[in-house]
Amino acid sequence: MIFDSIPSLFKIYYLETLNMKIIIFLITLFFNYSASAEINLEANTTGIWSITPTAQQNRWLIIHNLTEAQTTGIYHIEVIGRDKKAPAWHTNTLAAHIAINKPALLKSIIKPLKKGDVYPESFDDALSKWQKENDGKGGAICTASVIECIK
């Protein structure tokens, strides 16, 4: 056998290292599967989802066409931010409107929220402008993460 000529301490170290690598691989596989498991967007009827925050700001998005998007596959969202030390009513519109496909949206959201809706006027105006682009066919559709699309 290959291990017969190897000192015992090395055998133990090698086997422990191999076992740890297998365990780390299995944990990584589990978490990757869990993170990519299908999220039911429609179950969160508020349409409000947290996205990656910055050190100074919490950020979230609002899906404005949750029912229609089930058919079209295009979600019309608004992205909002609030400084972590700011009062709840002091929000900033980070993107008044983004049209985004479902895979890009799913890789962007973290968890559903119950609160965080804002007045829809800035979204409505930006959506109207988007709809008029390309001779009324609509503008660009984001296929990257929300964070990449607002840069």
Highest CATH level, the class of the largest domain: Alpha Beta
Number of domains: 2
Evaluate the radius of gyration: 23 Å
Query: How far do the termini sit from each other?
Result: 58 Å
Beta fraction of the residues?
A: 15-25%
Structural class: alpha+beta
Widest beta sheet: strand line-up? 4-3-2-1-5
Number of helices: 5
Spans of at least 5 consecutive residues with low confidence: 31-36
Counting DSSP E segments of at least 2 residues, the number of strands comes to: 5
Helix-strand pattern, N to C? HEEHEEHEHH
- Name the CATH architecture of the largest domain: Alpha-Beta Complex
Mean pLDDT: 85
Shape: globular
CATH topology term of the largest domain:
Cathepsin B, Chain A
Detailed description of the structure:
- The radius of gyration is 23 Å and the shape is globular.
- The chain has helices spanning 8-36, 66-72, 102-106, 121-136, 146-150; strands spanning 48-51, 57-63, 74-83, 92-101, 111-112.
- With 151 residues, it is of the alpha+beta class.
- The termini are far apart.
- Strands 4-3-2-1-5 form a 5-stranded antiparallel sheet.
- It contains 5 helices and 5 strands; from the N terminus they run H-E-E-H-E-E-H-E-H-H.
- The chain has 2 domains: 2-36; 42-150, Cathepsin B, Chain A.
